[in-house]
């Protein structure tokens, strides 16, 4: 047990797989907001994400309140909020793609890391959650259009 926990340690430099921030840290600097563009871009990205989540919550609340087909206005408002949420989430996805593909300085980051690990290589891959995000955008837009249609149907067929 002693050998496993204490004496069988890896060397000081161990090259492992890791996630890459599009705004890589400088060698002796650990402040992730050292770039002004990073602060602004992350700020916009975060605000759009939070607005999208808030919009979905408000839309869901409006649809729940309109559930017994009582108010066509609530259905239309909820549908409008779902469409706005779909647009906000699509902007978030597009901003993320731009962030990773265009703004990340992968060449300088690779050169910096090769000082520590000579066989270092960078591979850009999107995770499964990123692949599901456009599907979520599609369903938010679809839900918005369907609830607008339901609101219109209730309006036309109400007494």
Summary keywords:
159 residues, mainly alpha, 0% strand, elongated
Quick description:
The chain is mainly alpha-helical and 159 residues long.
Describe the fold and architecture.
There is one protein chain. By secondary structure, this protein is mostly helical. The protein is 67% helix and 0% strand. The chain has five helices and no strands. Helix 3 packs antiparallel against helix 5 (128-157). The longest helix has 32 residues, at 72-103. The mean pLDDT is 80.
Number of strands: 0
Determine the fraction of residues in helical runs and give it as a percent range.
55-70%
The biggest beta sheet is recorded as: none
Counting helices, strands and paired strands, the structural category is mainly alpha
Terminal CA distance: 80 Å
Draw up the topology in text:
Blueprint: H1 2-7, H2 36-65, H3 72-103, H4 106-114, H5 128-157
